[in-house]
Amino acid sequence: MTNQTIQRVEGALRNPLVLVGVGAVLTVPAALVLVLAFPLYRGLLSDPFWFPLLVMAAVLFLILNATAVCILAERKIAGFTQDRYGPNRVGFWGLLQPVADGLKFLLKEDIIPRRVDKPLFLLAPCLALIVSLVGFAVIPWAGEVHWPWMEAGTTVSTQVARLDIGILYVIAVGSLGVYGLVLAGYASNNKYSFYGGLRATAQMISYELPLGLALLCVLLTTGTLRLEEIVNQQAHSGVWYVFVHPLAFLLIVICLFAETNRAPFDLPEAEQELVGGYHTEYSAMKFALFFLAEYAHMITGSAVAIALFLGGWAPLPFTSWLADNTAWWAMLLKFGVYLLKVALFIGVMMWVRWTIPRFRFDQLMRLAWRSLVPLGLLLMAAVAVLTLFGGQRVWWAGLGVNVLVLLGVLWWAARSKQPMTGRQEDLPPVEFGAM
Amino acid sequence: MRDEDIIVLQEPKLSPAERLYLPQIFDGMVTTLRHMFSLKRRQQVVRQYPEDTRQGRGELRIANYRGVHRLNKDAEGRVACVACFMCSTACPAHCIHIEAGESPWPDREKYPVKFEIDELRCIYCGMCEEACPVDAIELTPHYELVGRTREEMIFDKEKLLQVFEETKHTKPRKDPPITDYGLTGGQGKDVASPNVERKV
Ligand code: SF4
Ligand code: SF4
Questions:
Q1: Which of A80, A351, A426 sits opposite B11 (nearest CB)?
Q2: CA angle A173, A174, A179 (to 5 degrees)
Q3: Chain A partners of B6 at a C-beta cutoff of 8 Å?
Q4: What's the rounded mean pLDDT across residues B65-92?
């Protein structure tokens, strides 16, 4: 293609109408095929084995594309918070930037440095991505669905794996996520990468604890590990667990930032200190895999947090609307609500990233071990006592406990000498010699 | 240093809420949110670069900006360079390649048959300009320098002279030349020994 053709195509894609047209050309035939082939796969939709598989395929497709959109959103938000526009050259309003990025990643030279541990070097990005994607298996996307052609009373589930140990699975897989980073840091044979990997490990170990403690608070209330049960409870009672355990929610959100290595906890990839952190030596598509893994991890993490605290697919708090509705349109609506919540959650994560500067490593550790873990322990003990005396029968009992704990922490913060953030104590003025 | 010159800064006391760190975070988030939705500020600050460049303060019009090179022409339109190799010797990036030939003109011995600068290797330090005894090579304030191949970015003599034609209005050749050995028309004096009349 000549330069001029490229320019003309570029110019045309900046026109929103052209963009919509191209989008329609790409999606309308696909939608038509789906509609026309409906009788063929109708049976699959009502099959309790195949339907979750279809959901899985759809969700995987959606997530992988969503990560691309997330990257655009991230850059846009970064731009907006810094009084810039963000990417706005490729396509209308920069909408095709992910496409350009993807092409670039594919076409870039894929460098494998000479002295790396090759098998591990290649394995690390795959592992990071796979681990962050398998977490989706237990997310109850839209509850149960009853297709009109099914026998009355039977339903199929939109959850891929209905595990008894739903939450445990998420934690196990989530902490495996650090494995990719550590391997990358180790295999790169580069001190900065190695530091990145080490930091990732230390951070992960420290933040798993408060995460687990906060989860225990909720599990004491729910009495089950199954995510679909937890969502169902919230949808039926209308009381999302964020109202019962606000502090636990706070802990989980903080730990989520740390688990996904997002600012202010992005020490493993701190550009200013570690060049690029664990992915310093990675280029082209292997680097892109790490990128994808980070965003996929964010989506999984926020989906789990939403299932636990924000009512999952339940559209509105304090009503049980849609909770028992298993019609197919209700399923689509629930799915949409879930995705919307995830999008909002990720938006907040990005917003935080571009607001808060990164912690120093000692601050990070102090925050985890000296404030989050004690707070988690305290909360868990309080909720356990509450549960023992049957206080879980009214939902605001948990809230009351939270308020009490918060007051206690405030009191402690007012009295303790050193603030949690690790600001140094007053230094005496230093005398300099005569100048 | 006198005692009254010492300013002792005391860190402000933190309130309990501030010690929890979270209220401050929410404060910060409100600030970034405000920026996120202030379209007006964005429009004031951002310049859409290729279409719109900075005007007024911050505008790039300093004459000694070190951008792409040019080879100056003297008053008669000949290339001013005398192929002395000073610039290529001074160049820390070794990106100037000169081939000298016998000059067709009576007032100098040599002239460059070939004169190439690899603009991709150049670090734009300006050493060549400093070294040149006849002010033949100069850096211009032009920084919009792109090309699609590496070969394209090796500027030859014609291209460098062309750059001179394009920039001589915005940045004329230094006049009089600092040292012209009294050779280029005789109006200049050698700075090192201004009272010595030089013979051709
Ligand atoms: S500016 Fe510096 S690097 Fe470039 S050609 Fe001149 S001397 Fe060489
Ligand atoms: S220093 Fe000046 S005169 Fe000497 S070769 Fe370089 S450009 Fe030509």
A1: A426
A2: 85
A3: 429
A4: 87
